[in-house]
Design goal:
four-stranded parallel beta sheet, two-stranded parallel ribbon, alpha/beta, 3 helices, globular
Amino acid sequence: MLSPPSLPDIAPGSGMVILPASAMTLSAEDLRVRLVMAVDSDEDVVIDARETGLVGQAVLQLLVAASRAAHEAGKAFSIIHSDAELSGRLVALGLADAIEIHAEEEG
């Protein structure tokens, strides 16, 4: 049986979540827990996608749900260091307006 890939540890109370390199169904449950903790934190929710190459539908659904939950809680929600594939996938699925995305940044 496959084990879900472990996600990097984030400081308790942080609104930062780092997506794994392969953000597929196998990692979705662990990611869901981290997104809930980020929305419940005192900070805006920031998703770092710099290491992410693949993003599955289950993870996209979690990101949209977390974005809505963050906005309902009066917090900003954004994805930083997104590559063209993730951005293009959100646009193709009509989800680009649901999530604020910042493309790869130099530096």
